[in-house]
Amino acid sequence: MTERTPETHVIDFRAAEHLLAARDPRGAIKLLDSVIAAHPESRAARLLRARAYFASAQLGSAEREFQHIVDHEPDNAFAHFALARTFQRAGRPDQAKRHFRLAAALDPKPEYLEAAGFEAGE
């Protein structure tokens, strides 16, 4: 196997973005696993892997990754929103509601407000 360098990790990250966009989340996860093994502090890589897990219906893994982001970046509205979607998809509406509301409170985007059950301007 070729030696991994910071440059190859960047290339793998960018390739994983493209794979996820091309609806190949499992391919993206494979690339991101090595990036995260080398750079476990990389929240961008973890967030992308969480999205790939969600897209491939690996909800337990998606939940763990999104929760990791929320634990380290409690003001990350997107991570709260994505974690809520994961809970929602897993049939856990009470947990979903809490994170939808946190996302909306952190960033009042229309889709966050709607998911939280808030009206714009409330």
TrEMBL record:
<dbReference type="InterPro" id="IPR019734">
    <property type="entry name" value="TPR_rpt"/>
</dbReference>
<keyword id="KW-0802">TPR repeat</keyword>
<protein>
    <recommendedName>
        <fullName>Tetratricopeptide repeat protein</fullName>
    </recommendedName>
</protein>
<dbReference type="InterPro" id="IPR011990">
    <property type="entry name" value="TPR-like_helical_dom_sf"/>
</dbReference>
<dbReference type="Pfam" id="PF14559">
    <property type="entry name" value="TPR_19"/>
</dbReference>
<feature type="repeat" description="TPR">
    <location>
        <begin position="77"/>
        <end position="110"/>
    </location>
</feature>
